[in-house]
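Structure in, sequence out. Go:
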């Protein structure tokens, strides 16, 4: 998945959320949008590190993956802790957004890989 696809996906998800917030004044959906953005950023970070590690030897590639894993987990933990501290009613929609932000780009990347025939 490249940045162009990620931006298009973020736009397709954020537009209905912003319209829904404007029409219903239900601000809990901001949690979903923040979670989706964090999940999407997490996956883009994973893809970037995977492309860096693909040409390395095994110990160096594993070191890149471990460092990336703990950094990405720290970023998600920071987002959850911040939202939990200031807007605890947004936590459920935040969790749904993080799940959607991780699963949807992975499905798109897998389908692109299978369509290209190199999977």
């Amino acid at each position: 998945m490249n940045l162009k696809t990620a931006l298009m996906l973020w736009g397709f998800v954020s537009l209905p959320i912003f319209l829904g917030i404007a029409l219903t004044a239900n601000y809990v959906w901001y949690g979903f949008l923040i979670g989706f953005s964090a999940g999407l950023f997490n996956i883009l970070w994973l893809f970037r590190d995977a492309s860096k590690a693909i040409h390395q030897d095994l110990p160096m590639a594993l070191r890149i993956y471990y460092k990336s894993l703990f950094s990405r987990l720290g970023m998600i933990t920071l987002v959850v802790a911040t939202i939990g501290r200031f807007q605890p009613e947004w936590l459920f929609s935040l969790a749904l957004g993080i799940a959607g932000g991780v699963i949807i780009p992975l499905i798109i990347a897998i389908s692109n890989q299978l369509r290209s025939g190199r999977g």
